[in-house]
User: Fold these one by one.
Assistant:
Number 1:
Amino acid sequence: FRSWHRGTKELDLLFGPFADARLEDYDAAALAQYEDLLMAPDPDVYSWIVGLAPPDPAYDTPVLRDVIAFQRTRHA
């Protein structure tokens, strides 16, 4: 639910499809990383995902890289 209701429509459209497609395959550690990412400030997360800024090292996890790759393949 939170993936589709982040607060900004842009992130809803980035996280929602990703969550629908990938989260069921994540283990507990990956889900924890995803939860941390959902708690990050919206403008920062958006910038990281669309490539406007490098990710903050604290959030530069395999999950964030998976979200970024997912978005790139959706829009390739």
Note: The chain has a mean pLDDT of 90.
Number 2:
Amino acid sequence: MANAWFESVAEAQRRAKRRLPKGVYGALVAGSERGLTAEDNLAAFAELGFAPHTAGLSNDKQMATRVMGQDVALPVLISPTGVQAVDPDGEVAVARAAASRGTAMGLSSMASKPMEEVIAANPQTFFQLYWVGDRDLMAAKVERARRAGAAGLIATLDWSFAYGRDWGSPFIPERIDLEAVRRYAPQVALKPRWLWEFAKTRKLPDLTVPNMVGTPGEKAPTFFEAYGQWMQSPMPTWEDVAWLRELWGDQPFMLKGVMRVDDAKRAVDAGVTAISVSNHGGNNLDGTPAAIRALPAVAEAVGDQVEVLMDGGIRRGGDVAKALALGAKAVMIGRAYLWGLAANGEAGVGNVLDLLRDGLGSALVGLGHTSIDELSPADLVVPPHFERHLGEDGADAPEAQRSAGKGTTA
């Protein structure tokens, strides 16, 4: 039997592509419109370099931190993602892997497993919700998360519902019925391992979203039914953010998808305890800059008031180090762990987290640090015009956008 361990996230993605039906793999690649933002998320990290030391290095590597009220062994959290039909155990497998590595996870409203099962597998789980339906339905889902023992709440409220991908969107059935089986049969026949994993459970992939209802066991909508309801819901206001924050109480509350300084300040005013600088993996408004480009300005503006995280484009431990050096408290990963889940189930997710931990440790050694708390812009080579100061107040904002930042310039 071939070695199931992989040495990079890129290799996990290659294995996922070989294992998954074309449509399932395409759904994970995703991106919107021309894919500019998804590409920039990766390209931006490649533009940043390191400024390593030569001697006096140490093998001590302190990576533990505290995020959203949770002590974690490394500054890498699982980002909430949608239906994870790449593996029969889905989000439960991800939760177990994260727990085994001592870190927390976000669970999506669009997940395929009920929050009660996932939180039981990893008590360090934050429930993520979209603004779908009216306040009564939102309140019911918040209360369900509270009863289930969610460690925090993540609100994702910005979405442009962009349509169309230049490379074509994969066929995703609304439910697994005879028509879906007929259309998918040629793809599935070429991927027997994926089919066998589900066959062993005697269950077909479940395309319903059980966390979109307020009561456990209530009939869950399909992914597309929930998406349609989401599209028809009124867009939330900052008053809605403050209401949701108050409803959740004193527990940790993150607003995900903040790219602008002015929005970050309004989020602080609304009472959030954390924000994630994020463009949703390039799946929202195409042409939005990479999250890592917007991170420094946001962290400088509100990092002393709330925890600032970022997600988008993390593929190796060095990327984690770069994000922390530019002001992030921690990072969240999405596609990286999904590739691991597709490649080797729960063990594959653990494999990805191990790679990021080890890569971060190597960066700390090379940069002459013993703790992630010592990372700073001085550790990086930042090219001119790298940062994007979106929504920054003051007449000096254009000049700030032309600045290379506080790191070493290329």
Note: Residues 395-405 have pLDDT under 50 and may be disordered.
Number 3:
Amino acid sequence: MTLKKSAGLAMASATAVLALFPLTAFAASNTPVLMASTKIATAGQSVTYTVKDPAESSSTEYQFWVEQPSGQWTIAKNYSLSDQLTLSNVKAGTYEVVAYALSKSAVQAHDWTTAMATSPDSLYVNASVTLNVVTKTSSSGAVTATVTVNAVNIGNAVYQLWWKTPAGNWHANGAYQIVNTFTLPLTEPGTYEFVAFAKPPAALSNNVGALASAPVSISMSTPAEKVTLSPAVSGLHTGSDGVDPVTVSVVNAQGQLISNFNGSVSVSDSEGLLMGASGSLTNMVTVPIQNGVGQVQVMAGSTASTDQITASGLSAATGSVMASSIQYQPTWISMRDVGGNISQLNTIMTVASTVDSTNGDQNPYGLTFDSFKGTSQAPNPFYGDLLVSNFSNKAGTTGDGTTIEAINPMTGAVKTFASTADGPVALAVSPKGPLWIANFGTNG
């Protein structure tokens, strides 16, 4: 007995009767499951299928239907107590196998309505899926990718395309379709990854039922159009030994970071306050650009001024692309005198020294009030204290301090709160208790 391919339908039959059931009719927790010895085979191989039936009893019988590579469904094994089927000497193409479970009494009564069907199981013999990606840039600079999927030995194949953007997000074209060509815009610079799936119409529309291609990656390099400079704070106190990190970014015409751009750029300033590789101050440094980003550090000056930071001379490493003309966006950092004078205050009282008693750390920097009371079971012993970070070590090396002092503002008592910081510059107490520490460190 044979039946032409009918997508979305499962076949059930006894010796002389054929009934058709939608696959969704069997989506129950006690549905039998068909297990195959392999999903991918070579011509001439034997493949064994076993029904795993949670409702199996000593009187359960099984029937197996197979869709041949020609597209015809046939009864490969009629109802019997055997829950296994072996396909021998399989030929190139795709097979779909469906099993039915039915009690012996129902088989004898020809009551096919109570048969429980497995989901179709796909077998791919000498089959493969490959894809080819071709990119095209329009006169306006828009880039599109045309992806062509080729399926071998998959009859009446339908296709689905998945791709991962440079940001790491996966997308799909939608439902499986008979057209094997997909066109999509590439709007982000970086690496895209493509994976295609192909299957016969009757196969499950997931990675279990379909055959996947090997992933194909392409790297899209949009030309660098602009270099931007972004200081972290844009202002420093004169004579404070403070540092303002300036981020150097390489972007395209739309202002998007080019995450696969590598090269270098020259950065200059008007006050000679750029930190060179050796730690000395200079008015020009060469900044390496990796993945579209670099960084330069500006030290606080000794007098009030405005330091203008500019970039120039962007160069691209092999594989990175630059426009014929590059824009350079400058920035400014203000050097301000510390406002106020403690001598002008009416009452001056020394509360405590912040120099750590254990290792001599000094240079108080971060300050916060410990407002966390703790709990009745675990009260906070530092509640109400002033927490002060030491930015320098005993020798005065900035960024090498490791301690945080807890000062009782009423008694002046000082305790070491922490000793494992790394150049702590800022402190804040979490509403749930822990102290947040912004570490600068000697290495930035």
Note: DSSP finds one helix and 37 strands in the chain.
Number 4:
Amino acid sequence: MPDTEPNRLRRIDAVVKQAEVMFALGRQAEHVQALDSIRDLTETADPPRRAAWLSWAGFFHSLTGARTEVPIAYCREAVALADLAGLDDMRAFAECSLAQVYLFAGNLQEALETGERALQFFESRQNLWWACRALYQLSPAANASGQWKQGLEYCRRALEHGQEMNDLRLKSSGWWRTGSTHIQRGDFDSGLRCCEQAFALNPIPFDAAMARGVHGYGLVKAGNLRTGIAELADAVAWLEKSNLRYTRSLYTLWLAEGYLRQGQERRAQRLLEEILTTSRERGYRHLEGVAHRVLGECLTPDDPAGAASHLAEALRILEEIGSRNEFASTLAATGGLRRSADNSDEARQFLERALAIFETLGTIDGPLRVRGALAEL
């Protein structure tokens, strides 16, 4: 194809328009290369094309493991360009991508605020597809913050939009995301049923893998360790093949929790140390904090000093980013560490603080564990 201005624009359009399909097919790493290949062409393109490229570049680079500063810069440039050119729709699109990157970076409040702006724009225009995309960033940000009621409301709206459009992808995604919120809150039965609703729709490979991982985590938390671990391992393998770094790290963290509950501490520890390395390298602050917490629990029986160090770091990170449920879980784990050292008074203080937060948030399984630990003091 001759190197003419019209052909250069056609090439930009072709790559940008393939983004949704490549995402659905799980070919994110391949599409990052395609986007990078037209970087120079977009620098002299008109604002709508440049903003679209910046937004998709930020979105795909965040998925495939670029350090979070890189996609944040892409998305912020897209927002600034859209503002300058008066492109309200492109601004909302860019902020939808930016909300995802903020979530990955552990900027939870910014993720919620940015995603809400995008959601309001899309819903006001009855653009239900992109409203769902905004809701898909908002629900995990709410979950990471421990805002279960808000997270479930985001999922309800996404499911409602998907059903109104009668779209397979939107419906299946809405179901497994709803299941994820229920399971992380501690309502395993509701969460598992939601995942089964997603399976019944025969979803595309991406949503099938995501639903399988969430279902596996629900089984782990419900005590069905063998089956849950197997499902999580399958999901992690699929995510590894698709080069989805953040999501693979999240599911690997859940898998490590399964191994820890199964008594395979060394296997769990290896995975957790891998997640810590990845999280530090990529800037995944929330995952880093949670990994410190689970590693602290893993080390408590045999290395109390190491456990104390990891739990202290988890408390620092999780409080800083506003991850309240995980902060409470870390307080509870610290109480367990104090109890193992026969320091009942300090153990009680940590456990009671954890219980108060869990009850405020409406977490279901956390209070049960903490009350059991308090009863043993």
Note: Residues 296 and 303 are 9 Å apart (CA to CA).
